[in-house]
Amino acid sequence: MASHIGKLPVAIPAGVDVAIDNGTFSAKGPKGTDSYVLPEGITGKIEDGHIILTPEDDLRPTRARHGLSRSIIASMVQGVHEGFSKHLMIVGTGYRVVAKGQGLEFFLGYSHTITVNPPEGISFELPNANEVIVRGTDKQVVGQVAANIRKLRAPEPYKGKGIKYADEHIVRKAGKAGK
């Protein structure tokens, strides 16, 4: 019994170069480069435009690492080929964001502004003053940066004010009942 996810081959799209050297997987594409050290007990090979990972044994921890490795490699290939993005919306009167150098400056109703600088490999895009798009090649880093921005002013349930993901639905609560 092997990992169901780990058994799936990873297709290599056109324009992406991949290599496996001494247990290190590397991918290079139009959006950038990335590398990953395969865990102990997992070997990889490239056949017919696909990446195939095989476990050395059928023990439970090896099966878990097998599926994890395949998922990480699939995300890396997609990241260097297309990239990842998270779309955030800023809701609230007076809440806005402006570009400040490479980073962003948020006005979120506090007595001060909050400046966020992007880590390496991340870029910000501002379609307007109430939207932020976080882009990058590493799925985990893009998600973490978006989560950190959302945490600056999480949406509240009464008026829905705050920073939310574009596809997020805020469950609203009823306010005080009047007489």
TrEMBL record:
Looking up PROSITE patterns in the UniProt record yields: RIBOSOMAL_L6_1
Coiled coil regions, renumbered to chain: none
In this record, what's one Pfam family?
Ribosomal_L6
Protein name (Swiss-Prot/TrEMBL): Large ribosomal subunit protein uL6
Record keyword Cytoplasm present = no
- InterPro entries, sorted: Ribosomal_uL6-like, Ribosomal_uL6-like_a/b-dom_sf, Ribosomal_uL6_a/b-dom, Ribosomal_uL6_bac-type, Ribosomal_uL6_CS
Q: Which family does it belong to?
A: Belongs to the universal ribosomal protein uL6 family.
Q: Where is the Large ribosomal subunit protein uL6 alpha-beta domain?
A: 12-83, 91-165
Q: Which gene encodes it?
A: rplF
Relate the assembly described in the record: Part of the 50S ribosomal subunit.
Functionally, this protein is described as follows: This protein binds to the 23S rRNA, and is important in its secondary structure. It is located near the subunit interface in the base of the L7/L12 stalk, and near the tRNA binding site of the peptidyltransferase center.
Q: Which SUPFAM superfamilies match?
A: Ribosomal protein L6 (SSF56053)
Q: Does the keyword rRNA-binding apply?
A: yes
Q: What highest taxon heads this organism's lineage?
A: Bacteria
Offer a single GO CC term for the protein. Answer: cytosolic large ribosomal subunit
Keywords linked to the UniProt accession: Ribonucleoprotein, Ribosomal protein, RNA-binding, rRNA-binding
Q: Which GO terms describe its molecular function?
A: rRNA binding; structural constituent of ribosome
A single Gene Ontology biological process assigned to it is:
cytoplasmic translation
